[in-house]
Amino acid sequence: MLELRDVTAGYVRKAPVFRGVSLTVRPGQAVGLLGPSGCGKSTLARVAALLHHPDAGTLVVDGTPVRRWRHRAPRAQRTAFGVVFQQARLSADPRLTLTDLIAEPLRATGRREGVGGRVTELAATVGLTADLLGRRPHEVSDGQLQRACLARALVLRPRWLVCDEMTAMLDASTTAALVRVVEDYRAETGAGLLAVGHDRVLLDRWCDRTVEWHTLTGTPTGTPTGTPTGP
After folding, report:
1. Distance in angstroms (rounded) separating the CA atoms of residues 166 and 15
2. Beta strands of 128-190 (E only): which ranges?
3. Which of 76, 106, 136, 227 has the maximal Cβ count within 10 Å?
4. What is the DSSP letter of 171?
5. Could you tell me which of 14, 22, 5, 7 has the C-alpha nearest to residue 56?
6. 4-19 b/e with 16+ CB inside 10 Å = b?
7. Which residues are CB-neighbours of 31 under 8 A, at least 6 positions away?
8. Are 29 and 190 a contacting pair, CB within 8 Å?
9. What is the pLDDT of residues 169-185, one digit of tens each?
C-alpha cells in the first residue's frame, strides 16, 4: 500500500504548498488526483514517488515508512516507483538516444545484463519503431519522446506508477495509446497507479476512483500555488 499521512510540503519551509494532506493507493488500484494547474498536486506526486522530501508527515510504502528521499532512499524503495512527467523534454537528457534513455534506470542500478532485449521489448510495447531508438530527443516528436519516457518508467518493473499530467501535451490518439500501455502493465503486474491531472473525463475513465484536490486540502478549487515540473 502507498500511504501519505498528514503530509505538508513545499519549497520554502515557512510557506508550504499544502498542509496536512492524506491519500492512500492500494496495490492494483488506480487513483486519479484531479485539480487545476498550480494547485500543488504535482508536489504531492513528487513526495509520493520519493522525489521530494516533505516538511512534515509520513509516507509509507508497502508497510515500511520512508526515511530518505531521492538517491538517498534504499534501492528497494526507490526502484519500486516508475514516474512519467508532463513535459518529456524537461525529464529527458538531450544527449541520450532513446535507447539509452529507456535503459538509463537499468544501468544506474547496475542491471546491465539483458539491457538490449528489455529495451527492444518495451519499445515495441509503447509503440516505438526500431528506427527511432537511435535518435535523440530533439529528433523525435513530443509524443514519441513521451512514449520513450513511459518505457523508461516501466523498465525496472515498478510496483507503483506515478503519472503526473502524462498526457496533457499529447493528442487524443497518443493519449489513448499510452493509457492502454499503463493499464496493460497494471493488469499484468498488479501495480498501483497515482494519475495526476486536470481532465476529469480522462481520470474518471482511467481510474478506479478520482479524488479532487480541494477535498484533500480544504482550499477552494482554482487557488494557485505554483509548482515545478520535471524530475
Report:
1. 27
2. 160-164
3. 227
4. -
5. 7
6. beebbbbeeeeebbbb
7. 23, 25, 192, 193, 194, 195, 207, 208, 209, 210, 211
8. no
9. 899 999 999 999 999 99
- Pull the grid cell for residue 209: 476512483
**Residue corresponding to grid cell 525496472:** 156
Is there a contact between 91 and 82 (Cβ–Cβ < 8 Å)?
no
What pTM does this model have?
0.90
pLDDT of 178 reads 97
Closest CA to 146 of 130, 167, 132, 125: 167
The C-alpha cell at 224 is 494557485
- Taking a C-beta distance cutoff of 8 angstroms, is the pair 161, 186 a contact? yes
157, three cell numbers: 518493473
Instruction: Kindly state the greatest CA–CA separation across the chain.
Output: 51
